């Protein structure tokens, strides 16, 4: 690949917001570095993306593929994303998504991009890449810790999976290949559902098999994250992947919003809510949000409400309208609003999460542990109380607890939780002295996440990889030199090497030892042997 050639990358995210937004942020980062990006998804999904920065519009092209003609036999008209699907139709959405392989292949044949950058769920991009002779990179929106928990590709399917992950109990402790301290595992009530990733669904292939095929068929894996938070997990996953590069992209933060346009950008209700936030004390308000994918039951909503009320802390709760609620008023108990009037706000539907988290009155977050939300929350240095519900959220939640950045709500053996435990965790995180150390660690993490120079270096390393074709010509780049120097001289992961070097130096300076070696040689010469 010519180093001075304009690079064109075709990005293919899965149709879930937890995947779409990281791919969008990656597109922005690549375009800033001069990479031409084709962002490929369904028309409905593309319309939900934030507006592109005007100065990057010439470098990013949205490529809508027709979903209605491809997936109409599997899903109702207009269903194009995980957030839209009725309960029980997730497998059919995945099956419909897989049928995009054919229009995607046609795009690749016509446009001949230099790289395909695919989600780890889009296993069919492996075949397209091979058939069209285009190198494939997997960009994962999962944490490095999540990938480590599920292990090398050979443990995700076939005999390896059957031998190591055949029952829910196999998911309830950190796996044997993790030699360092780790809290990343499932509780049993979570494992009962999580074991299903190894079973083929309506798409004809299991979730785990998808990941195994993409990891086997790619040239490199890029992961949204940084070594400063997950260094040991990146190192171990790199060992899993052998000679394939594992590249942290940095956390790919969205641009921080300016305060001025908030009222103009949103409807009247949100303008009033931001006015209410302006009246609160700095770092005093808990933001509560469980994302667009989690579907809370009536009991869960009521227990969360009970916890917020009992905590006696100011709160702002962005709640997706539950399917069981006939209207917005039916979502809460009738007296909840009256009892928390003035102290809390509940907003049903979409919420401008970044603008909320950026507000100076927000001090903590009660959320599900989704990786994207965790990154956004840490960006602003907020305390975190985690209540994981689905997918990879439990693994992320335990990673945050392991790093001392979050408190997890205690649950029953069946996964149920109560308002009192939520209130207790919120008070610990936001008000009590025992939360002081966590708040200090969160501030340090925020400083790392906001270190633009650091995260530009991560992006530059990935861009350099794309530009030099993974160094097949023997070329090297300054960013890789800088990375190695920092590993060797400054980063924690170089501590063991520095210790070994000191031991080696002690051996080299042992004059008695080396005199013995010389004496042995001299004795040989004297004896004439």
From TrEMBL:
GO terms for biological process: flavonoid biosynthetic process. GO terms for molecular function: UDP-glucosyltransferase activity. This is UDP-glycosyltransferase. The keyword Transferase applies. InterPro entries: UDP-glycosyltransf_plant, UDP_glucos_trans. It comes from Camellia sinensis var. sinensis. It comes from the Eukaryota. SUPFAM superfamilies: UDP-Glycosyltransferase/glycogen phosphorylase (SSF53756). Keywords: Flavonoid biosynthesis, Transferase. The keyword DNA damage does not apply. Belongs to the UDP-glycosyltransferase family.
